[in-house]
């Protein structure tokens, strides 16, 4: 598999030694790929091959001002959506009225190594908290929570992992980097597996990473979240946050039945074979099975913007 990376937020140094990065969009076009796997919700039409949406997170409650969920924005650019669980499958199938794309439930590829590591990891800590925050000004509570977290770091003997969305405001990153304590470690958002395994609970705001953590059947305390679902322990007043965390640390089985019910809904696949199912779905379409009856929209304006952003004007 070969990769094309675009965007200033992408760190190419995170690629593995066996992963080939194609530097120019013109080279991507020359490769005539059979399939293009995209975690984003746009893809250039001028690249050949089946356009496959594999998502960059689990469904969340983030909505546009219009009320539309970001996770289900159909831009008319994909042939196949590989979904993670029954509810997103059902939702996307309900949006197939025009019939130009197909939906196959595969599970989320990102979780495959995660489940393998979970089974292999044995070391546990009952006093380690994982904090994560999203980047959106509307949803992020990182700036508000930084002072409170600093207080708890100094006051209590438990340790912290912290991770911040790559797109979060740089001033917030500086705030967390300024916490000078051996009890806190800032973790890159691409290297979360071990932090997940070691942590006893998560503290978060409104971020799809919540559901990734819940698959370990550990409690999540949220602060002023938009995703106030039964598995979560939500706190509205910052004065109540510390006592809620301490209570949860003393009872890590709290909400476990609700968490298990939720996992069965948002990601029932724990076999580590989601990538295999995704490849099978793509190969089936490439073989002429499960093809859409209609062509995708021309998307003239979106494709023009992609050509402009990628500086590719050949026809």
Structure characterization notes:
The chain has 315 residues and is of the alpha/beta class. The chain has two domains: 2-108 and 269-310, no CATH class; 114-266, Rossmann fold (3-Layer(aba) Sandwich), CATH 3.40.50. Helices cover 33% and strands 15% of the residues. The protein contains eleven helices and twelve strands. The strands form three sheets. Strands 9-8-7-10-11-12 form a six-stranded parallel sheet.
Sum up the overall morphology in one term.
globular
The CATH superfamily of the largest domain is: Glycogen Phosphorylase B
CATH architecture of the largest domain: 3-Layer(aba) Sandwich
CATH topology of the largest domain: Rossmann fold
Strand pairing plus helix content: what structural class?
alpha/beta
> How do the SSEs run, as a string of H and E?
EEHEEEHEHEHEHEHEHEEHHHH
Question: Low-confidence spans: pLDDT under 50, at least 5 residues?
Answer: none
What Rg, in angstroms, do the CA atoms define? 21 Å
Task: Walk across the major sheet and give the strand order.
Answer: 9-8-7-10-11-12
The total tally of domains equals 2
- How many strand segments? 12
Helix/strand layout:
Layout: E1 2-3, E2 20-21, H1 25-30, E3 35-38, E4 50-53, E5 80-83, H2 86-94, E6 102-105, H3 111-120, E7 128-133, H4 142-155, E8 159-164, H5 170-177, E9 184-186, H6 193-198, E10 201-204, H7 209-214, E11 220-223, E12 232-235, H8 241-250, H9 256-266, H10 274-286, H11 300-310
Parallel strand pairs: 1-2, 3-4, 4-5, 5-6, 7-8, 7-10, 8-9, 10-11, 11-12
């Amino acid at each position: 598999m070969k990769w094309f990376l675009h965007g200033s937020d992408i760190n190419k140094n995170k690629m593995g030694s066996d992963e080939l990065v194609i530097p120019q969009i013109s080279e991507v076009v020359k490769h005539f790929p059979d399939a293009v796997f995209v975690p984003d919700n746009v893809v250039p039409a001028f690249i050949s091959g089946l356009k496959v949406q594999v998502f960059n997170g689990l469904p969340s409650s983030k909505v546009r001002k219009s009320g539309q969920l970001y996770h289900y924005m159909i831009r008319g650019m994909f042939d196949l959506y590989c979904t993670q669980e029954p509810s997103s499958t059902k939702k996307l199938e309900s949006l197939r009225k025009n019939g130009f794309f197909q939906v196959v439930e595969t599970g989320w590829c990102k979780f495959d190594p995660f489940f393998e590591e979970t089974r292999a990891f044995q070391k546990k800590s009952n006093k380690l908290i994982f904090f994560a925050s999203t980047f959106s000004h509307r949803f992020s509570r990182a700036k508000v929570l930084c002072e409170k977290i600093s207080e708890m770091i100094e006051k209590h003997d438990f340790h912290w992992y912290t991770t911040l969305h790559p797109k979060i405001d740089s001033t917030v990153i500086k705030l967390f980097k300024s916490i000078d304590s051996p009890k806190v470690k800032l973790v890159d958002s691409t290297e979360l597996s071990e932090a997940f395994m070691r942590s006893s609970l998560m503290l978060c705001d409104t971020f799809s990473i919540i559901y990734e953590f819940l698959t370990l059947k550990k409690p999540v305390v949220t602060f002023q979240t938009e995703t106030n679902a039964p598995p979560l322990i939500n706190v509205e007043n910052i004065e109540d946050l510390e006592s809620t965390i301490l209570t949860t640390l003393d009872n890590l089985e709290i909400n476990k039945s609700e968490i298990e019910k939720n996992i069965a809904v948002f990601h029932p696949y724990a076999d580590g074979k989601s990538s295999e199912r995704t490849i099978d779905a793509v190969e089936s379409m490439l073989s002429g099975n499960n093809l859409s009856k209609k062509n995708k929209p021309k998307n003239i304006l979106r494709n023009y913007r992609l050509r402009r952003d990628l500086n590719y004007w050949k026809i």
